[in-house]
Amino acid sequence: MMLKTVSQLHFDQVDRDFPQQSRDHVGVSSDEVVDLLGSICPLGIWRLEIQTGCVFWSEDAARIHGMEKSEGPVSLNRILSMYHPDDALLIEELVGATTIEQNSFRFVLRVKDSKSGHRLIAMAGRFRAANGGELYGYCHEFNDMVRSIVLTGG
User: Does pTM top 0.85 for this prediction?
Assistant: First the structure.
């Protein structure tokens, strides 16, 4: 018996903001939160200057997209070339719509892999008015398979 599989891409433009959590009383810094989340899976952080099309990103964001790390900006067009052509068009539309509507977004789309196929990348971002308009956010490889957890130690 042959099982049929269905591949579904997810693209969502969201216009909601969750209330910002106060964490001062917890005693955990933003850097520690990012480091903690990055210990679960590679977590890329990025920022796009809308006027210039320059993207600044962390080492994990570059690795997730199959590119070398960069201390300086990377062009949005170069990054889009790593995506499936249909998905790259969606991202271009998303950047335009998010800039106009000044809201948030999230998606799971296809990035080229080293074997002439594609991997799924999850990304979420928000608009901010700084520097003539910017998008900033995070990305990670999307894997909907259940993972096992092994506890070690004492």
Answer: no
